[in-house]
Design a protein that fits this description.
With 315 residues, the protein is an alpha/beta fold. It folds into two domains: 159 residues; 129 residues, no CATH class. The protein contains ten helices and 14 strands.
Length: 315
């Protein structure tokens, strides 16, 4: 069984301690190094190539059919000036309505129209861009940038192309927001976009290494759909879950607090997750209902906890 816990390692650079039971359990686990970041770690664990396009997978998780096109996420974000820094609030904090998102995406789409670009706002805070001849791209995941200065994370590859498109989008969004709000843009609004997750689906889709995927994340859902797994959008109670080795469950509740440095909210999430998920699964592992529990966050090492690690009575 695999548990992917976004934000597991907490806000940086603060030295944050895990809740006691979680710390004790993972201290007993076998550790494996992993140099990847974010959901790429989960893809690699499940047998997907490291260069798989996260945007292409996410579209499938949104309900689109798999295709052979190149896709990149082009998400609406808010950039705020803070001295000589430009801080990013990611798309999920904006509270965009579907109508507002479509209107803003329509304003941005002409930037890419001349080169055959297609912009799809499949969800208010998840936009997808396809280009027939995409320039080279290198960039950071939103989880690496949210709450931080964007300057060290601006797109690389053909940087002139991508940064010019960012500037154009900022101007068009500003004009659109000002026009819609009586001549003055609102304080926290989608005033820019953020590119990430570029690439394509593999020519041959890997078979699923798990049979059931429980997730609210569209990338993880897309991975399950492409691999032939059963994808469940609602998270059940751990005690009612049909346990086995072939399960993947993702948790996003700790990601936002970790990104924005909200230590109290992060600690509250982990305490609740420890009590409602780790404790009952640890008991099931001890009882032999499955044989290994793999826990990983969006960075750091991966933890493999086996039955022998939890068989002592005081655990």
């Amino acid at each position: 069984m695999i548990l992917y816990v976004a934000g597991l390692h907490g806000p940086a650079p603060a030295a944050i301690a895990w809740p006691r039971t979680l710390a004790r359990a993972l201290r007993r686990a076998r550790r494996e190094a992993d140099v990847h970041q974010g959901l790429i770690r989960l893809l690699r664990l499940c047998g997907w190539p490291a260069d798989t396009g996260l945007a292409a997978l996410g579209r499938v998780g949104e309900g689109a059919a798999p295709d052979g096109r190149w896709w990149i996420r082009c998400d609406p974000v808010h950039l705020a000036v803070d001295g000589d820094r430009l801080l990013m609030a990611d798309s999920e904090t904006l509270g965009l309505s579907a109508d507002e998102a479509r209107r803003l995406a329509k304003a941005v789409a002409p930037i890419f129209a001349d080169e055959g670009g297609i912009l799809e706002p499949l969800a208010p805070h998840r936009w997808y861009l396809s280009l027939p001849r995409p320039p080279a791209f290198a960039g950071s995941l939103p989880s690496q940038v949210a709450g931080r200065d964007v300057h060290p994370h601006l797109p690389g590859g053909d940087s002139r192309y991508w940064r010019a498109r960012l500037n154009e989008a900022q101007m068009l969004l500003h004009q659109t927001l000002v026009g819609a709000h009586g001549g003055q843009a609102p304080g926290v609004a989608a005033n820019s976009i953020w590119f990430w997750g570029a690439g394509m689906l593999p020519a041959i889709l890997p078979a699923a290494t798990v049979r059931h995927v429980y997730t609210a994340d569209v990338v993880a859902a897309g991975m399950g759909v492409c691999g032939g797994a059963h994808v469940h959008r609602d998270l059940p109670d751990a005690r009612s879950l049909a346990l086995g080795e072939d399960l993947l469950v993702t948790f996003q509740g700790g990601e936002g607090p970790a990104q924005y440095g909200d230590v109290a909210a992060w600690e509250a999430f982990l305490r609740a997750w420890q009590d409602t998920w780790l404790e009952p699964l640890k008991g099931a592992l001890r009882a032999g209902r499955f044989h290994e529990l793999i826990v990983l966050g969006d960075e750091g090492v991966r933890y493999h906890l086996q039955r022998r690690d939890v068989r002592l009575w005081w655990w």
